[in-house]
Amino acid sequence: MGSFSSSNAGNGTDLMTECGTNCSCGVECVNRLTQRGVSVKLRIVKDRNKGWGLHAAQFIHRGQFVCEYAGEFLTTEEARTRQRTYDEFACGGGLHPALLVVREHLPSGKACLRVNIDATKVGNIARFVNHSCDGGNLSTVLVRNSGSLLPRLCFFAAKDVVDGEELTFGYGVADPTKQGRPCFCGSSCCVGRLPSEET
Ligand SMILES: C[S@@+](CC[C@H](N)C(=O)[O-])C[C@H]1O[C@@H](n2cnc3c(N)ncnc32)[C@H](O)[C@@H]1O
User: Fold this and answer.
1) Comparing 174 with 192, which gets the higher pLDDT?
2) Complex ipTM, two decimals?
3) Residue 99 CA, ligand 1 centroid: distance in Å
4) Distances in Å between the alpha carbon of 107 and those of 5, 7, 10, 17, 49?
């Protein structure tokens, strides 16, 4: 509890490769879509139960790039240590941890690359995206720049989003039988608990 999501590339999270340091092209290259920063208007809005949330401040077309989930890339050992601390403090309700664990299944099918991105203290606007049990309106894509080992996690609109709508995605699957922090996503399929990452 306290951190969020386990997205399996090949199982919910798509993979994409963009041009990188190995390429001779510049930032205007059409294959560097996610490398030019946020290109849609967004607004940060406070919710009584969920804390801050990210809302669209314009119409966003389905498939449009929204933003990258920036943060500190941690070793798994450091992620586990931080998670324990966050769990302790988040119980009081004052802290909104933003530690995201992504697993990419490698093509062999025998190994998986675990990426821990912590936006709790260092991050960008994406760290305000809240969870929705219905999967929300954002899809996650692991984008690897050619020549880079570590992928970046990027949000794209999974459907058309209207101005003012909250942007959300599914942090993972919550187990309603386990103790956890309450979920206030308000969707009709809400299980009442936030997903928790057993690390
Ligand atoms: C990535 S942060 C999102 C931004 C956060 N709301 C804030 O104010 O900083 C994740 C944290 O937001 C809160 N949160 C996200 N979705 C929620 C939901 N559906 N219900 C309750 N709290 C939620 C939890 O505290 C979670 O650890």
Assistant:
1) 192
2) 0.99
3) 11
4) 22, 16, 9, 14, 41
Tell the residue nearest (CA) to atom 19 of ligand 1.
185
HSE (side-chain half, CA atoms, 13 Å) at 45: 13
Is residue 128 within 6 Å of ligand 1 at its C-beta? Answer: yes
Kindly tell me the sign of the dihedral angle through the C-alpha atoms of 171, 172, 173, 179. Answer: negative
Question: pLDDT category, 179, cuts 50, 70, 90?
Answer: confident
**In this predicted structure, what is the pLDDT of residue 158?**
97
Check: CB of residue 168 under 8 Å from CB of residue 138.
yes
125 lines ligand 1 (CB under 6 A): no
Residue 158: exposure state from Cβ atoms within 10 A (0-12, 13-18, ≥19): middle
What's the rounded mean pLDDT across residues 131-156?
A: 94
113 closest CA partner among 71, 142, 70, 82: 142
Q: So what CATH class is 4-169?
A: mainly beta
* Chain position carrying tokens 């941890």: 97
For 62, the token pair is 């389905």
**pLDDT(2) > 60:** no
